[in-house]
Amino acid sequence: MAPTSIYQSFSEPVYRPNSPDTHHIAHTSGETTRNSEPPLFLLEVNASAWAQLANPILRQHEQDLQTIFFPTRETSAIYDTEGDVVAGATLELTHPVNVVLSAHMPSLLYGSEASKATARADRVYFKQNPGQEKRFYAVLDYKRVSVIIEEEFRAKIASSHTTFKRYMERGRDNSESQEEDGHVTNAETLLKQGVH
Predict the structure, then answer these.
(1) Origin, by domain of life (predicted)?
(2) What is the DSSP string of 40-58?
């Protein structure tokens, strides 16, 4: 198999190994996260909006990115734990993105397990001038695949004026963080972690 350049890798799907069919319960790690208010609803954004921003940058650096090659794909990997996700995402997602960001914006730095106040993120992208605080541009938080239940997130998307209105009314009733039976879903817990 011919090696894949970093440039070519952006035209290929991210490798997703088989993961367990079972779902695990997402847990909050502390009181601050438990007391966080998750978003009332989610908005679905078409990925083409991001591609329109990224494609000119990729084309600008195409010559260099065609000479840097993607590591060999590890097809024996599984995505059972959060650590598996970190390892896979490093190879498949963050490595190509970091190479492009370094070429396009060398002053943009990244680091792992960054903290600010009571919040901690797995990966942050930031700029920092000497003697000044970090200015964050993007945050990445890894999650165990089995705690992400797509249907729960899809149920929170305000896809019409009617669903938007329903979510706003629930928010005013201060009941948006629980299902009608009082059960907090994994999506709600993950969104609390996201806003915290």
Answers:
(1) Eukaryota
(2) S-B----THHHHHHHHHHH
Q: Exposed, middle or buried: residue 111 (CB in 10 Å: 0-12, 13-18, 19+)? A: exposed
> Can you tell me the distance from the alpha carbon of 196 to that of 138, in angstroms, rounded to the nearest whole number?
15
Partners of 42 in the β-ladder: 157
Which residues 6+ apart lie within 8 Å of 169 measured at CB? none
**Token pair 């990925």 in the structure block, residue:** 47
The predicted model scores a pTM of: 0.77
- Rounded to an integer, what distance in angstroms lies between the CA atom of residue 16 and that of residue 170? 36
Q: For residues 73-89, give the mean pLDDT.
A: 85
- Can you give the pLDDT at residue 67? 96
